[in-house]
Amino acid sequence: MASSFTSSISMHARVSATTTRFSLQIPALIFNNGKTNLSFSLQRSMPARLVVSCAAKQETVEKVSEIVRKQLSLSEDQKVTAATKFTELGADSLDTVEIVMGLEEEFEITMAEERAKEITTVQQAAELIEELVQEKTA
């Protein structure tokens, strides 16, 4: 028999008389037969800067990298990683539009112009693609 619940974690950070607050909900499935353990570990000290990242699947990042490489006619030895910015590869605004068109065709999605303009890295493109694909299948 399994029980399902959602836990909520709230964190507060005090910075120069302002308070930043965010909440993270984590769905969990607990089995009564003892085969699954769930444990959380919270640390009291927090870094001065907190970065939250929702990494896209590696296969999506790789596909985006391939499309970027193709659209910009990059050589195989030129490194394209998730953190690579299109401008670092010499892309201008027209190149970026062509990259977006290539991504839309490959993943069979449509990106709103406002959202497409926000994409500056391979990782951002991969995350947006996964979001749009998930919305499409929902």
Automatic annotation (TrEMBL):
SMART domains: PKS_PP. Its main location: plastid. Residues 58-133 form the Carrier domain. GO terms for molecular function: acyl carrier activity; phosphopantetheine binding. It is found in: Plastid, Chloroplast. GO terms for cellular component: chloroplast. One of its GO terms (biological process) is response to salt stress. Pfam families: PP-binding. InterPro entries: ACP, ACP-like_sf, ACP_chloroplastic, PKS_PP-bd, PP-bd_ACP, Ppantetheine_attach_site. The keyword Ion transport does not apply. Keywords: Chloroplast, Fatty acid biosynthesis, Fatty acid metabolism, Lipid biosynthesis, Lipid metabolism, Phosphopantetheine, Phosphoprotein, Plastid, Transit peptide. Carrier of the growing fatty acid chain in fatty acid biosynthesis. Belongs to the acyl carrier protein (ACP) family. NCBIfam families: acyl_carrier (TIGR00517), PRK00982.1-2 (NF002148). This is Acyl carrier protein. It comes from Eutrema salsugineum (Saltwater cress). The lineage of its organism: Eukaryota, Viridiplantae, Streptophyta, Embryophyta, Tracheophyta.
